[in-house]
Design a protein that fits this description.
By secondary structure, the chain is mainly alpha-helical. It has one domain. The strands form two sheets. It has a two-stranded antiparallel sheet. α1 runs parallel beside α9, α6 packs antiparallel against α7 and α6 runs parallel beside α9. The protein starts with a helix and ends with a helix. The model has no long low-confidence stretch (mean pLDDT 92).
Amino acid sequence: MAYRLAFGLILLLVFPGVFSAFLWAGRLFLRTDGLLIFVLIGTIFGIVFDQLVIKKVSYLQTLIHELGHASASLLLFRRVERFVVTPYNGGEVYHSGGFAGEFGNDFIGLAPYTFPTFLFISVMLRPLLNSNWFPWFDILIGFTFGLHAFGFIRDIRNNFSRRTFIGAWSGRQLQTDIAVRGFIFSTIFIITLTLAIHGILLAVMVEGYRGVLSWGQQFYPVTKNVCESIPRVLKMVQ
């Protein structure tokens, strides 16, 4: 409880910087006419596929959800110890402990609502490809974005609840990932991490891997100003 209260406050402090960097990356992306058009084409296909296929097949929804947990685990160098997906009874992922501590646990637990697995993989591969892959690969990137966009919304809507369910493998009565971590903390975490991750991905699409550094250069001064303003605000309140 104390950790989530403290970390929730930290997330609120960095949110202005995250939001500012996301807007910068969005503007950068919108100025890339060719890239923008092909990604939009792919996004339309992704949304259509989600609505006509994914939305109607619960197994696929569960698979994508659990892949979010599993891929976030691997990203934090944790071992996926059990990966269970069932057609009608949901799924479960168990991972080892280790790197990133409590933040890592929350990042993995809330990954299906913040971390776009397929979009992340495709964007991070993009700088490694030669011109022969384009524009088709950019259409694929758009497709993965469209696939995740409505999936995120659907997952949040379905799991923003105190309802309990029986674990697909454990057989234990469980709460949703969001309810376990608290609705206020989860809301702050999901919004902040989603903007941060997507802002970085937009920057990488336009600038390659150096886009990560460019994103940080936008994020840092805003966050620094916010942190420096806190003592002044507290002094005025006193």
